[in-house]
Amino acid sequence: xxxxxxxxLDVEDGxxxxxxxERLRAEVGLFKVGKQLFTSAGPELVRRIVLNGGQVFxxxxxxxxxxxxxxxxxxxxxxxVSMLNVHALGGMTMMQTMSxxxxxxxxxxxxxxxxxxxxxxxxxxxxxxxxxxxxxRPVTEMVVRLAQLAQAAGLDGVVASAQEAPLIRQACGxxxxxxxxxxxxxxxxxxxxxxxxxxxxALAAGADYLVVGRPIATASDPVQAARAIVTEMASSxxx
Length: 239
Ligand SMILES: O=c1ccn([C@@H]2O[C@H](COP(=O)(O)O)[C@@H](O)[C@H]2O)c(=O)[nH]1
Hints:
This protein has 10 helices and 8 strands.
């Protein structure tokens, strides 16, 4: 079950990140490198984690014109990451171009292709946040619509709240990958997340991977916190 747990390396420098990788490598399946750490430590850090046997989800949420996103994703492929993502709101052409070019270069260069994911609606967004940017449709409807768009564009899956996982499963089928941040064990601080679920409920809802950062990183014993989440995930799977 631990292979389905992704730890968010939301830290300020490479040395701190590598220390977390050592501390949690036996407890989690992947390490997520996001905007803070990538801006600070760059591709060299990603290469180093991969070289040391760690699997990386590069969470840079590309959102740009099709050519720019495709070329950035090709460089992510060459870093050896296991997952990368774009914003589904970047649109069909952007996602199709990225997917086609990454798959073509992976085949031509003999590299394993990472899981190509699309962020639907951020788990920190509420219905009123959507309304404020002019989106009047319900969050759930937007998430399913974006997931179907990503699937039609040839992507492997989406990043979404586990709250929407059952609807995504229904719309996109059993093989479409659902990665869920906004995971909060009971009694954990919600922080800036809005659409949250517990680890057990997220798996029961159909999530394939859970992303967890602060509930582990700020725990008094992070190793124990990660183990407790994996135990909760296992109990949900066997229920
Ligand atoms: O919709 C999204 C997409 C990405 N994230 C990222 O996941 C982690 C969550 O960290 P926590 O500390 O467990 O809240 C973080 O790196 C986000 O950038 C997300 O939360 N929601």
